[in-house]
C-alpha cells in the first residue's frame, strides 16, 4: 500500500477555499454539483476527505469513506452528523444495494485501481441509484499545474494520476447528465468571473468535469 499523501495535509486541507481564488473555484464547483444531485435518502461519499462536500449535501443519511486516517480524523470532527468509515474505494465495506447515491469527487486521481473503485461504487448502489463522479480534467490548465507540482515531489500531486472525460466515459459509458466548471487558469487575476469567461472563450476545458450515471 502506498504512503498516505494526505498525512501531513489534513489539518490545513480546506484553507485554500478561504483564499479569494479558492473561494471562487469551490463556489463554481458547488454550483455544478448541485445541478446534478439526484433525489434519495442515503449517500455514500468515497474518499470524503475532511467532509467538505459531505457537510453540504442534502441527504438524510450520509456516510463518508476515507482511506487516510489523518483526513478521517478531521472529517469526523468537522462533520459529526455523518457516519465515517476508514477504508479503500477498491473494497467498499458495505453490502450490495446499500445507497441511493454514491459520490466520488476528485478521488479517482488517488486510488490504486480506477476500474475496481468504479465497479465497487456501482455494486453498492440501490436499483435506480445514481453514481456521481467528478474528476480533475487531465486536459485542463489546472491538471498541467498539478502534474508540474507532482514532478517536483509536491504532495498530494506526486501520487496523482489524471483522467479525461473520455477516459471516464470509456469506463462507465455515456453519462445521463454532465457539467464542467472552472475555466480560468490557475494564475488568473481578479475579477475571477471575467477570467473564467475568458478561459471558456479560449477553449479551456473546465478543471472539474462531473458526470452522473444511473
From TrEMBL:
InterPro entries: Methyltransf_11 (IPR013216), Methyltransf_Superfamily (IPR050508), SAM-dependent_MTases_sf (IPR029063). Signal peptide: none annotated. CDD domains: AdoMet_MTases (cd02440). Keywords: Methyltransferase, Transferase. One of its GO terms (molecular function) is S-adenosylmethionine-dependent methyltransferase activity. It comes from the Bacteria. GO terms for biological process: methylation. Residues 44-132 form the Methyltransferase type domain. Pfam families: Methyltransf_11. PANTHER family: METHYLTRANSFERASE, METHYLTRANSFERASE DOMAIN-CONTAINING PROTEIN. This is Methyltransferase domain-containing protein. It comes from Thermus tengchongensis.
